[in-house]
Structure formats: structure tokens, C-alpha cells
Amino acid sequence: MLASTRLFTYTQSVMYTYSYDGLQPQSKSQAQGPGFLGNIGQRFSSHTPSHETVKRHVVFLMLQAVFIMSLAVFSMYAELRANVAEADTKNLEIQQHLLVQSRKENDRISQNSAVLGAQNADGTARSTNSETSDDIRKNTDGTLPESAQPAQDEYVIAVYGDSMVDTMGEVLEYMDHDLKEKYPNTRFNLYNYGMGSNNTDDGLLRWEKPFHHMDRNYPPITEIEPDIIIMGSFAYNVFTPHNRDKHWLGLTELVQRSQRLTPNVYILAEIAPMRRGFGFGPNGVNWEPATAYAHTGNIIEQLKNAIGLSETLQVPLIDAYTPSLEEDREEGKRQYVNPSDGIHPSVAGHQFMAEIIIEALQLK
After folding, report:
1. Residue 218: beta bridge partners?
2. C-alpha closest to that of 175 among 334, 318, 17
3. Helices (H), 197-333
């Protein structure tokens, strides 16, 4: 149908804007003058299109048809690649589903690590039962008991990372809100050292440099004397070509540099990406489906690097990744992702991460 429409349109343009004796363009007055129909009849009676002219028209129309067919084939090929990629990972997703279910069952029984602030100040395991929630642990007047009060009156907290940190707000508004709500008598000086499109190499390069981004103008992180550093995973910015080992080593160096500034260092594993629909939106990258699907697999590998590195280095983990997964597959929940770009956290996603971060922090 499209090819027929183009043929009709092109034929009209030939008949109304060109003469058949050499394809010389006519003026607008010639094309629209009252004697034009008579001229057309006269031209058809006295001039027949040459064989070469007709041949050129036919070739042009054939090229148009081939181009349209090529677009259709490319679209089908892209969708096929996406389906093949999903099929290749089907067994892995089943295994991951079983692993997630097992982990959730274990979490309901007990937690004996620093993940999500699962330890009390004395290092003993804290049950995740609702009876030990913040609301129950508060005094009747709404204040925290003496044992849960921060050890200091003021804290300097820096969050370092890529755009997943950058979009937390110019002054980390989501964290700031939850901190003030939980610790109303404590002052917090928050620094957002997040910058978009940064991988671990970029993070290392700017470590000792002043930070100037958006409305933020900070001295180097090495000069603010932080009490707490939360190190983002840099998982969403994959090396080209993808190099999981390089990411592991770069993140290790960033954590170790942080430990030279303060003993209170945390690794943040941000929310999981969507596998289908990643980067799709008015402000997204809008890659073809197979490319986006493969890229999110690399992001997930690097998020797992962050989780594994926390265990290797014995650094507390703030795990927003695991609880952000869909119940039946290794893919981020859509409500936590900004529909504008299909990549960064939505408002609900930022609130979700802020709650997990504040719950994890041990204010010593």
C-alpha cells in the first residue's frame, strides 16, 4: 500500500512538474496556468517519454520498494534477536528465581550480616520481624531510646557515584528527609558527589579534584572530612567492551581510598534495571531491544560485583538491588524506574533507596 501511494505521488510529480522532452523543470505559472491541461495533451500527442526516462523512473521506484522492505526485515531481525537473548537466559532466570526465593526465606528467619543495617550496635543479629520495626523500638513519645541515639550531634555524609547517585537530588533531598525524620535532634551535612555517565575509571580520576556539577560546588571529597562515605556501584556505566573484572578492580580501589578517609564506608547496590523497556522514553537512549537487553545483563553483572565486593572487603552493603527485583525474574520492578528515560529511579525508586540507606546506616 505504501509503495502504491509513493508510485501515485511520484507519478503526479512527474506529470505536473516536468516536461517529457528532457525532464526540464517547469515554472509554477506553467504548471498551474489555465492552458496547462491543453499543454499536457499536446505534449502527450507530440512527445513520448524516452525509454531511458521510463527506465530511470522504474529503477527509482524499485529502489524505494527495496528500501522499505529492508526496514521491515531489520525490524523483524531486531525483535528476533531480543527473543533469542531472552531464550538464552531462561535457565539462568529460573535459577536466579530459586535463589531469590531462598534468600527471602532466609531473611525472614534471621539476618546476620550488615546488609540493610541488619546488626544492632553491639554486633548481634537483629530479627526482621515487624515487632522490632522502628515504630515499635521508639519510645512512647516518638523519640528513639538511648541505645539508638546517634553518637554525635553532627555528621558529614558523602555519597559518591554515577547518575544513579546524581539523580538523588542536589542536596540528597530523599535521604535528608528520612534522616531528619528518624534523627530530629541531629544535624546532617550531605554531599552528593554523583555525576552522570561516569564509570569507575572516571570516579577515580576525579577523586582528588574539586567537584563542580549542576548547582553543586564542593571541595574534593578528600578535604571534607566525612564521617560516612556511601560508595555507589557505578554499575550502570559499562566499559566498552564490557569488562566485569575491570569494574571490580576500579570499585575496589574507590572503596579502599574511601577507607583512608573514614572507617565508616558502605557499598551501595542500586535498584535493578528493567530488562525490557530499558532506556525507552522521551528522554531515553531508545536502543533497539536486543542491544538494551544485552546492556542490562552487563549492568546486573556489575551490581553483583558490588554485592560480592562488600563480602570480600568486609564492607557493609546497602542492598537496594535484591528487594527491587520482580518476584519471578531477575529484572527491576517498573514502578521504581523513571518512565521518562527508562533508566534512572523514579520518585518511588528514590524514596525506596533512601529508606534502605537510612535503615542501613550505623551512626557511631
Report:
1. 211
2. 318
3. 200-205, 244-261, 289-313
pLDDT tens per residue, the chain (364 residues)? Answer: 444 444 444 444 433 333 333 334 444 444 444 454 455 455 544 556 677 888 887 888 888 888 888 777 766 766 666 665 565 555 445 444 444 454 445 444 433 333 333 333 343 333 333 333 344 355 555 555 655 789 999 999 999 999 999 999 999 999 999 999 999 999 999 999 999 999 999 999 999 999 999 999 999 999 999 999 999 999 999 999 999 999 999 999 999 999 999 999 999 999 999 999 999 999 999 999 999 999 999 999 999 999 999 999 999 999 999 999 999 999 999 999 999 999 999 999 999 999 999 999 999 7
CA distance 177 to 192: 15
Please tell me the distance from the alpha carbon of residue 239 to that of residue 199, in angstroms, as a whole number: 7
Residue ranges and CATH numbers for the domains of the chain are 2-88 (no CATH), 92-360 (3.40.50.1110)
